Amino acid sequence: LSANGNDNKKFKSDDKMDGAPSRVLHIRKLPGEVTETEVIALGLPFGKVTNILMLKGKNQAFLELATEEAAITMVNYYSAVTPHLRNQPIYIQYSNHKELKTDNTLNQRAQAVLQAVTAVQATNAPISGTTVSESAVTPAQSPVLRIIIDNMYYPVTLDVLHQIFSKFGAVLKIITFTKNNQFQALLQYGDPVNAQQAKLALDGQNIYNACCTLRIDFSKLVNLNVKYNNDKSRDYTRPDLPSGDGQPALDPAIAAAFAKETSLLAVPGALSPLAIPNAAAAAAAAAAGRVGMPGVSAGGNTVLLVSNLNEEMVTPQSLFTLFGVYGDVQRVKILYNKKDSALIQMADGNQSQLGKTHL
């Protein structure tokens, strides 16, 4: 596959990158946990997506676009720029199938996702020609996203946002601030296509279980001017910037421009962070463990022994919720002969260490 990676593995149904163009595309080497939404997002910038078939056991998918022209544009673009999902390179080629026939009763989840993105597609003008350029992106598709965190029971840090949004492309700059008693952020990608993919996949998602909901819209700004690298703002292309301790992180010009923006996402009365000692440090550390911060060890014992519990009140659900702040709880067992004690199994040793340290 000379145009899209050095993979010589043959497939019975699709084995030629340079085969006849088709509006059905064969996508392979998908991460095991990838969703239909993420695969559909690959095709959205190029036109209407009309069908999808996920082959999760084979880490493959078939994506059908409305026109052959849109499929050609997509293949040409991703031949020059290797697409990534969840930081893993994937490979796209023409399928031998001219249309995708699926049994809707067996493919209900994919069809539901397709219906959900129809409204999004209606506002996105298809990109014509053989290359994707900035001039072809509609005005609504800025490389800068405006992010609002609803139901913010736990603090969300700049580093957590960087880890989450980096899954969809290179994050260049982030500015965080509080406006109307809500935690908000401006995040700039190098490419508007990455911003669109992140918005489609993450808008409405929760960072933690049932809280810290992401509300994402395109900003009217096309470039962020970051003056300081600190816990409020960062320019990842300029590591030499000063920390600017005690200085406002938001550039006055950006603040003025941002004040003019209006959005339906600004819901008044959002919950403020819990007023408990070290809540910010605990939640930040928990989030770092949840999204897999580089350099953080995930080894060690995954099971915690918790004692001195109130036997009248404790339940597996309450322990699941409590320890869920610090990672993904796998199992909870209240000891049968000693009901003031319980065993909690976390997904990895890093998460169990976080729970032990903070609780």
TrEMBL record:
Residues 23-97, 145-221, 302-359 form the RRM domain. PROSITE patterns: RRM. GO terms for biological process: mRNA processing. GO terms for molecular function: RNA binding. Pfam families: RRM_5, RRM_8. Gene3D superfamilies: 3.30.70.330. Coiled coil: none annotated. GO terms for cellular component: nucleus. Keywords: Phosphoprotein, Repeat, RNA-binding. InterPro entries: HnRNP-L/PTB, Nucleotide-bd_a/b_plait_sf, PTBP1-like_RRM2, PTBP2_RRM1, RBD_domain_sf, RRM_dom. NCBIfam families: hnRNP-L_PTB. PANTHER family: MATRIN 3/NUCLEAR PROTEIN 220-RELATED. This is PTBP2 protein.
